[in-house]
Amino acid sequence: MRRGAAAACALGLGGSLLVTPVQAQAPAWRDDATSRLEVLALLQTLNADLLSHPSATLTLERWCGAHHLSAEAKVVAERVRGQDKPLPDDARKQLGIGADEPVRYRRVQLACGEHVLSEADNWYVPSRLTESMNHELDTTDTPFGKIVQPLHFRRQTLAAELLWSPLPQGWESGTPLPASQGALAIPHHVLQHRAVLFDQDNRPFSLVVESYTADVLAFPQPALGGR
């Protein structure tokens, strides 16, 4: 889904529909060499910021505020229900749990204002959280990172991947840059992280896969190079 397009996603579940809010129209980036360099620099900056902080939620709030994506730089979690995913094959080993240990699943969209910045799949071990944390996770849309902050957790990144690069492989050696002279086409998902969260006693309690969307770039293109 192209950034800035009005979007409404419906999920059929037992005859009911879950509809996400329509997103605001975002300014388009031009498809030229300078724009592609700018976009790559921004994605690498966001990636480095996410890798250097334990909470993706708080990092996205800072990003939202710095780029004025919303009047209020506050990230909220919009629960996506009815799309439970099985635990990945290697997850029990990564979480340090046995075959019979209960694991819960939570899928959220992290949004700042009308912009969905991240879609996160989260498998967590309820026995390693407090009763109040589990209750809040079950009954509210509060972001996971904010709920478990009292654990003073740290984050170990297992993988960080740019899902799309605005520059072709070998561009630095003279490979021609694609350019349409129109709007730059940016795919829905641009960056993905896979990480395990550890509490202050170094116990793993959560596996998260975060897919960041093109809306992290939903702000006016900077006027560089005399433009």
UniProtKB/TrEMBL annotation:
Signal peptide: 1-24
InterPro entries in alphabetical order: Chorismate_lyase_/UTRA_dom_sf
Keyword entries, A-Z: Signal
Keyword set includes Signal: yes
Protein name (Swiss-Prot/TrEMBL): Chorismate lyase
Native organism: Dyella solisilvae
